């Protein structure tokens, strides 16, 4: 398919959270990702970002996000410029607003991976170019789309599926999965201790989306919530910036570890396991499950690249 086919209706928009997009629009991004992956596996070479540049701002370290953005943009003929906190004065000597206005005059787009959601919002508001949220403390939309692609590949459908996030229900991945599931009509549950339930504002945000799509959203500390799950999903117990809480988190989350017993508790033989990576084996997941045939983590990791390329093609 030629570049013109990516003349999407999203050009010039930003992706800060999937709450800003309709179910039909999210599925269009998914279709772009399926196409991008097919083209990659066919060894097709396109130059759809030729003459374009993207600023990659990273306050937090990354393997998959940085690799995906740099390789996807570069392979398409574009020029990615990596900027760490050592390279720019974001929010320090120079305000986020001023940084946005400068970068907006020099780049075709901006990716931001950092702490504050308000920073990525300010970049989008003042830069005048598409801004992509590569991760904040609140949301991780590019991860969510890769996970949706992985679900689609494994089950051939999305509606009617159920997946369960096990662990820290407040974290950015859990929030993003809740939003995208509520939008697309996928049943989604969080299996977590009461202390780590997602905040009320995110629940209230998702409620009308779920009502419209028919998705069932559950939040519980009872193991029965995993029954019927097509996928169990987890993330690290201690997120970046919360290292001091390791002992407390380990105590709270040990009963929510994804292990052979929890996989069996779904009552399904074909339940898959997913993890956004990096994983700490023996904590949130056992090595037995992580290395099993049910584990789709490497497909999921590869899908970060194809979905990120699709997002950039759609927006830029």
TrEMBL record:
Keywords on record:
Arginine metabolism, Cytoplasm, Transferase
Which SUPFAM superfamilies does its entry note? Aspartate/ornithine carbamoyltransferase
Where it sits in the cell: the answer is: Cytoplasm
Any one annotated GO CC term: cytoplasm
Which PROSITE patterns does the record cross-reference, listed alphabetically? CARBAMOYLTRANSFERASE (PS00097)
What highest taxon heads this organism's lineage?
Answer: Bacteria
Name of the molecule in the record: Ornithine carbamoyltransferase
Q: Which organism is it from?
A: Treponema berlinense
């Amino acid at each position: 398919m030629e570049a013109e086919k990516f003349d999407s209706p999203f050009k010039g928009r930003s992706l800060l959270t999937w709450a800003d997009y309709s179910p039909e629009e999210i599925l269009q991004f998914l279709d772009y990702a399926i196409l991008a992956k097919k083209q990659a596996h066919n060894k097709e070479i396109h130059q759809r970002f030729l003459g374009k540049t993207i600023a990659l701002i990273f306050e937090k370290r990354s393997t998959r996000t940085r690799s995906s953005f740099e390789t996807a943009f570069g392979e398409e003929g574009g020029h990615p410029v990596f900027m760490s906190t050592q390279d720019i004065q974001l929010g320090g000597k120079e305000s986020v607003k001023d940084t946005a206005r400068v970068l907006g005059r020099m780049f075709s787009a901006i990716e931001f991976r950092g702490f504050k959601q308000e920073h990525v919002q300010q970049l989008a508001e003042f830069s005048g170019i598409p801004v992509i949220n590569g991760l904040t403390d609140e949301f991780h939309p590019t991860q969510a789309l890769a996970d949706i692609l992985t679900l689609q590949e494994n089950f051939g459908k999305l509606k009617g599926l159920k997946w369960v996030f096990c662990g820290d229900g407040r974290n950015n991945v859990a929030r993003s999965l809740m939003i995208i599931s509520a939008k697309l009509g996928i049943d989604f549950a969080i299996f977590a201790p009461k202390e780590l339930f997602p905040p009320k504002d995110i629940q209230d945000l998702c409620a009308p989306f779920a009502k419209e799509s028919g998705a069932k959203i559950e939040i519980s500390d009872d193991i029965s919530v995993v029954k019927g799950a097509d996928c169990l999903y987890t993330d690290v117990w201690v997120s970046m910036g919360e290292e001091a809480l390791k002992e407390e988190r380990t105590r709270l989350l040990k009963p929510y570890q994804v292990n052979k017993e929890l996989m069996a508790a779904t009552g399904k033989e074909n339940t898959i396991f997913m993890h956004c990576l990096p994983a700490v084996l023996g904590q949130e997941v056992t090595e037995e499950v992580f290395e099993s045939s049910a584990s789709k983590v490497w497909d999921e990791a590869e899908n970060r690249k194809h979905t990120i390329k699709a997002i950039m093609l759609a927006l830029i």
